[in-house]
Ankyrin repeat domain-containing protein
Amino acid sequence: MLLLAATAALSNAVPAAAQRVSEGHAFLEAVRDRDGTKVTDALNEPGSTVVNARDISSGETGLHIATKRRDVTWIRFLTSRGGDPNIADKKGVTPLQIAASLGFADGVEALVKAGADVENANAAGETALISAVHRRDSGLVRMLLDNGASADRADNSGRTARDYARLQGERGIMMQIIEQSDEARSGKGEAVQYGPSL
């Protein structure tokens, strides 16, 4: 009799877990479809944490989806409802890194305002600033430096945003922006560090 009760309790637990998975999947599909009603209904469920649901295959959240389609309205909506901009997908990529690699300045700004860590790096060690330097996107480079990004954080190859800027030309625009940021930081009493930080 005890074994029968334990088996029944266990079988009842499986549908609840499956239901949570399907709620997360349904939420992500609603974000993909831009279905505001379904997303809002899911978020309004008492105790819901579905806003940070992750795709089982990619690890992406709703913020990854909205950022990839350059949808600043959805980014602001999801972060206002508790969406965590620092959750990385299975490759270690955060929404901020996606926005930087796309040159999506409004997205970068919205994610930074929502608390995105500008120093997060993907699996290759690449930060949003390194992506912006690779793109030669002077506006994003300035924005990220102004929000605390370090030009001296190395990726897995050992190169920093400063190194990549230098490779583009010692007096190139990227290098000039980084040097201006160094001067501004040193003028505020911040120590400027070169090389890897330990």
User: Anything to note?
Assistant: Confidence is low (pLDDT under 50) at residues 13-21. The longest helix spans residues 2-32. Residues 182 and 188 are 10 Å apart (CA to CA).
